[in-house]
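Need a sequence for this fold. Nothing fancy.
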């Protein structure tokens, strides 16, 4: 249980920080695609004898930039992302079938298994999280500029293509980290909903990041605790809590607009 809370805290912090830029750059759909690519990668890892995390990292990192390039033009964005999602799901099912893994392995990949996470896995998650946070910290000023004022960033000479590629790789790492608790198919919960809710309460990027982390922590901590007491899937409780927070944000924003 201690390992679960340690891993959950790390994952919530990373998701809260990265999620702000995911929402600002309008990337929730792309995040969902990377989660499905992560599913294929985790299944491939089981097939070749790697850990699911190693396979997920390999697939999402290699695919992130390619997916970003394919979806760079609005006219073909949805079609490109949809086709890649379909291919990733198909590959994931194929690799699981070829690896002869039991149903519990598939369930863990899809929906997470944080309650049984080991100390070694906590260390792996922590190392990946530190890498992601260092990248975001190093790119913070240009990334904030480009995410919240893309036209101004272009005029100011920000290297948007390079910046987008580096951020996509950081996002791929974040997907692999977050999958350890909510699973590959529900990653977008932590990478989008806390940040989406935070924008209704915050008036600056810094406060938005702080609230996004707070909302992610609330969902993860309560989700793990309730899952432990009920023996129900932790991802279910995290999803419910984050959706509730999001709708509270919408309601608060609606009341503020009326007043």
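Here you go.
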């Amino acid at each position: 249980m201690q390992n679960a809370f340690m891993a959950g805290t790390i994952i919530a912090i990373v998701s809260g920080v990265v999620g702000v830029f995911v929402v600002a750059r309008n990337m929730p759909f792309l995040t969902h695609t990377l989660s499905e690519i992560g599913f294929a990668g985790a299944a491939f890892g089981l097939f070749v004898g790697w850990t699911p995390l190693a396979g997920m990292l390999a697939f999402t990192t290699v695919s992130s930039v390619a997916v970003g390039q394919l979806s760079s033009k609005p006219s073909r964005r949805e079609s490109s992302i949809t086709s890649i999602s379909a291919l990733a799901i198909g590959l994931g099912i194929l690799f699981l079938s070829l690896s002869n893994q039991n149903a519990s392995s598939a369930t863990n990949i899809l929906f997470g298994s944080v309650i049984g996470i080991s100390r070694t896995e906590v260390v792996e998650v922590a190392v990946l999280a530190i890498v992601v946070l260092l990248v975001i910290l190093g790119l913070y000023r240009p990334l904030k500029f480009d995410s919240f004022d893309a036209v101004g960033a272009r005029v100011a000479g920000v290297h948007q293509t390079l910046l987008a590629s580096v951020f996509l790789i950081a996002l791929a790492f974040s997907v692999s980290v977050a999958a350890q608790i909510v699973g590959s198919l529900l990653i977008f919960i932590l990478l989008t909903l806390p940040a989406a809710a935070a924008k209704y309460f915050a008036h600056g990027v810094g406060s938005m990041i702080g609230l996004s982390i707070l909302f992610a922590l609330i969902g993860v901590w309560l989700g793990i605790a309730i899952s432990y007491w009920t023996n129900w899937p932790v991802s279910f409780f995290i999803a419910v809590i984050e959706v509730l927070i999001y709708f509270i944000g919408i309601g608060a924003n609606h009341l503020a607009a009326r007043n």
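For context: The chain has one domain: 2-185.
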